[in-house]
Amino acid sequence: ATLALDNGLARTPPMGWLHWERFLCRTDCATDPHRCVSERLFMEMADVMAAEGWRDVGYEYVCIDDCWMAPARDENGKLQADPKRFPSGIHKLADYVHSKGLKLGIYSDVGNKTCAGFPGSYNHYDLDAQTFASWGVDLLKFDGCNSGTLELLAEGYRRMSLALNKTGRSIVYSCEWPFYLRPLQQPNYTEIKQYCNHWRNFFDVYDSWRSIKSILDWTALHQDSIVKIAGPGGWNDPDMASGFVSLSQLVIGNFGLSWDQSVTQMAMWAIMAAPLFMSNDLRHISPEAKRLLQNKEVIAINQDPLGKQGYQITKDNNFELWERPLSGQAYAVAVLNHQEIGGPQNFTFSLTFLGNGLACNPACSIRQVLPASRDWGVYSWVSSLSVEVNPTGTVLLKA
């Protein structure tokens, strides 16, 4: 039953780009050729990812979400791409993405229809897995709409996991399993991790601060059940994308977040060891957003090989203090200011709080990573640290 764990994939949280939150289910390429879900969109994103440094800092998956399919399977029962929007077919698109040193992700659904009403994989798990493998796909996001009973849902997720492994191709398996279980029963994360490389826990992320904040609140509330299960090969997706569903999407570089809120999303997704899938238009992105998303120090925290997910250690008025154990006896520390009024505020805490008192014993050097990179010097373990944080902002430190 642990076959999926042995696919050797997702030793660190996967990184890439996904179309959903920004481009939704746009299928009208006649009036909107640059923003519809088509092979052109994914080829252009792959071009930008290879040319403008995204691939080189770790964003390697170019992911297709819902709405790529033709409305019906072909005469052999196989899934097929919409012939108008993907005239070359998915195999050719995968070849193109691979030629750029990137990997291709695709989307299907455990039920008989996807969330947007296209053909689902129910009763076709083996065939669809073989089809994806034959096309050269590297990641499957498997949604949970229209699945009928919880038993069918669970059976579908297990069966697709085994079917993907049977193809012999390395395909990262991204599940929405716990999200669809949660309203009705507590997910068994131990079982889910046996079958999936990462899994979605919470509602869609929107391009808004309210959405980011609710995801952080939910994660802190449920950390006792989810933090311990995360690790190499299996990760918690704190959220997915707006509309229907999707991977843990970074909405930095879109419209809804202020600069400080963008810093908060980047810092907290690193602390939570979340998969980093951007959903934005990389062809038109501000230099500031690009710098933040390509920040190598933050990405190194997210990708830390120890693979432990961070957690909230204290909450005080408008402040939250989070930590994440890293390799080499280091810790990432985030100080988040929830206040949405006034100016920057100071939060002071004792370093004995960190790592159960061990992080800075007998001393540690502290470096600020976000919002800007600078060394703070060496502190003894009984010191206090005072951190100034902007409203809705986060200061990310490494001790």
Describe it.
Homodimer. One of its GO terms (biological process) is oligosaccharide metabolic process. It is an enzyme of class 3 (hydrolase). One of its GO terms (molecular function) is alpha-galactosidase activity. The longest helix has 17 residues, at 150-166. The chain has 399 residues and is of the alpha/beta class. The chain starts with 14 loop residues before the first strand and ends with a strand. Mean pLDDT is 94; it is low at 1-5 and 240-247. The chain folds into 2 domains: 15-303, TIM Barrel (Alpha-Beta Barrel), CATH 3.20.20; 311-398, Immunoglobulin-like (Sandwich). It has helices at residues 20-23, 39-51, 90-99, 125-135, 150-166, 177-181, 189-195, 209-221, 223-226, 259-271, 287-293, 296-302; strands spanning 15-18, 61-63, 103-109, 139-143, 172-175, 198-200, 204-205, 235-237, 240-241, 249-250, 276-278, 311-316, 319-325, 331-337, 345-350, 363-370, 374-380, 384-389, 394-398.
Going by CATH, the homologous superfamily of the largest domain would be Aldolase class I
Q: What is the tally of beta strands?
A: 19
Rg, rounded, reads 21 Å
Strand order of the largest sheet: 8-6-5-4-3-2-1-11-10
| CATH architectural designation of the largest domain | Alpha-Beta Barrel
How many helices in DSSP terms?
12
**Major sheet attributes:** 9 strands, parallel
CATH topology type of the largest domain: TIM Barrel
Mean pLDDT metric: 94
Give the overall shape. globular
Unreliable runs:
1-5, 240-247
CATH class designation of the largest domain = Alpha Beta
Helical content stands at 25-40%
Q: What percentage of amino acids are in beta strands?
A: 15-25%
Please state the oligomeric state of the protein chains shown. single chain
Count of domains = 2
Distance between the termini: 39 Å
